[in-house]
Amino acid sequence: MENADIETAKVFIIVEILEYVPSSVVIKTIIRKTTGNVSAVSFDSGEALTEKTSPFDTFIQVIEGKAEIVINDHSHVLSPGESIIIPAHARNTIKANERFKMISTIIKSGYENIL
Which CATH class is domain 14-107? Predict the structure, then answer.
């Protein structure tokens, strides 16, 4: 389940491998494994992901622009370099009041012993 788009053991600049597309959200998978994945995502201004929940924690880091992350109806505005963890099972949405890029990391392991 490797991603053929990103070469391993080669330096890259994450904000440069992902373009903005008008009226779109673009997701580029950096690493995909059964235990989790890392994706780079760009949002054009005015775009949003529909509200969802995930059975896993999700780490979000903004790398360009500003993002609005809504977790259980509580809004957080993140600037470049700022991060937030969306807890497992929390209702959440990600909105672009202006265009931005982020890294999303989901770790699927470590939940085996949680009741």
Answer: mainly beta
